[in-house]
Amino acid sequence: MSLMRYHGRGRQQTGLVPDRFLSEEACEALLERVVSLCPSGWEVSLYIYSRWNGNLRWARNEITTAGDITEPRISITAQHRGRSGSFTINRLDERSIERAIEAIKLRMALLARYSQKLWIA
Predict the structure, then answer these.
(1) At what angle do helices 94-120 and 24-37 cross, to 10 degrees?
(2) Which of 3.30.810, 3.30.160, 1.10.1760, 1.25.40 is the CATH number of 21-120?
(3) 3-class secondary structure for 28-75?
(4) Per-residue pLDDT reduced to its tens digit, 29-67
(5) Under a CB-based contact definition with an 8 Å cutoff, are residues 53 and 71 in contact?
């Protein structure tokens, strides 16, 4: 959130407006959060995609509706002992990141079982 000036109903207003894109500091903080939640020994990489889209509708020379969409997307990829897993999320809260890491752990465990079966056969 940042303090910005915006126009509303023909008059200028000042107030809190959500940031449209993830800043460099926010991306670094996100990387630190993800790394802290991952088990030790994992190689972790993030692909961070931050997009903003605005729309405006006119009727009779007046603005009738306006809106915007902020869309962050994060792809977490982890590697450990020759196995890798990846998961993409569009929420930045702690619970969503934890669920993504759990899904990656599950995928790596499945790959470990599959590779053991290949060695036994």
Answers:
(1) 50
(2) 3.30.160
(3) HHHHHHHHHHCCCCCEEEEEEEEEEEEEEEEECCEEEEEEEEEEEEEE
(4) 999 999 999 988 899 999 999 888 888 898 998 888 888
(5) yes
